[in-house]
Amino acid sequence: RRLYFDTHALVCLLEEKGFTTQQSEVIVSALVKIMNTNLDMIYKDMVTKVQQEIALQQVMSHIAGVKKDMIILEKSEFSALRAENEKIKLELQQIKKQVTDEITKVHADNKLNLNLEKSRVKELHAQQDRALTQTDRKIDTEVADLKTMLESHKLDNIKYLAGSVFTCLTVALGFYRLWI
Length: 180
Prior knowledge:
This is MCUR1 regulator. The chain is mostly helical. It folds into 2 domains: 46 residues, Single alpha-helices involved in coiled-coils or other helix-helix interfaces (Up-down Bundle); 132 residues.
């Protein structure tokens, strides 16, 4: 089965937009599965060219038989054949309507599946954004705590340094006084 888009290019595009390789491959894999499922559903309702030709040949042979019967029965049952012909036309119109309804249903199912996948991707993206925001907040809090701790230690060091300088100065002045 052929894919009508470049899956590798889509993976690369998703990676450029911030997804990881694994996330990108999972999304592309999901899209391919959805497309294959939808194509399977569509192919179930379709006929092959051979089947169509067989049906056409059957219809043509049926028409030929009807023409022959019409010539034979033209005088006696022509009005009955017309009524039967109208009935067949109505049945064909009903079948055509059913086929159209089925195609519409498959189209709606495909659209719904794509919308569901879009909403899932958006929700995943929103969850990642929330987790990233929480991580940023935690980092900012930790940085602020570290800055506060650094300032506290800096003030303690200044106090000890000032105390040490004054103590050394006092000791030096004491020695100076003793020698003089």
